[in-house]
Amino acid sequence: MIFRTLLTLIGLGLTLSQSGCSSYELGGPKPAFTTIEIAPIQNTTSRIGTHVALEQKLIESFTADPRIKIGSGGAKLETVVTHYSHRGLTTKSTDSYTYSSFNVSITVRCTLTTNNGTKVLFKDREFSASATLQPNGDASAEERSIAPGLFADIVSQIREAATTAW
């Protein structure tokens, strides 16, 4: 009796494991477009050069997706860097001038359209990332070194939203 129950459970487990991934597609669901144009990125913040790093990360991310090609004729992604902040963190109200750590955050606003701008997949959608910085030496250089990681996080959010938008 126990042997028969064990065989039944094994058979049921094999059946479920074989059918569980039957609808899986490499790379995820099919996006609403196969080609994407990344419009020149605008920067409305006082932080110079952020648009260059963001554009490079966007191109790398979409190029790495086998379902999508970079170019015109499909979707168009318009991006604006809207917020960059560097805020000192403290635990005491008397420590206002002796910050030992900082919160760095970046916000980007995107619009994704297809069919020559007639179909909007998302409009003015905000994506953001932040990190805590505890400088040990050159605080400015250390802050610049975390920007690529923040942009990689934002780009990951943008690509996920773009490839799953209907």
Cα(first) to Cα(last) distance is: 52 Å
Rg (C-alpha, Å): 23 Å
Under CATH at level 1, the class stands as: Alpha Beta
Order of helices and strands: HEEHEEEEH
Number of strands: 6
Silhouette: flat
Instruction: Tally the structural domains.
Output: 1
Global mean pLDDT: 80
- What are the segments in which pLDDT stays under 50 over at least 5 consecutive residues? none
**Percent of residues in helical segments?**
25-40%
Within CATH, the superfamily carries the name: Lipoprotein like domain
β-sheet strand percentage:
25-35%
Describe the protein's architecture and organization.
There is one protein chain. The chain is an alpha/beta fold and 166 residues long. Strands 1, 2, 3, 4, 5 and 6 form a 6-stranded mixed beta sheet that branches. It is 36% helix and 31% strand. It has 3 helices and 6 strands, in the order H-E-E-H-E-E-E-E-H.
Summarize the structure.
The protein has 166 residues and is α/β, with parallel strands linked by helices.
What structural keywords apply?
166 residues, alpha/beta, Double Stranded RNA Binding Domain, six-stranded mixed beta sheet, 31% strand, flat
Q: Layout of helices and strands, plus pairs?
A:
Elements: H1 2-19, E1 35-38, E2 42-43, H2 50-64, E3 69-70, E4 75-89, E5 101-114, E6 119-133, H3 139-164
Parallel strand pairs: 1-3, 1-4, 2-4
Antiparallel strand pairs: 4-5, 5-6
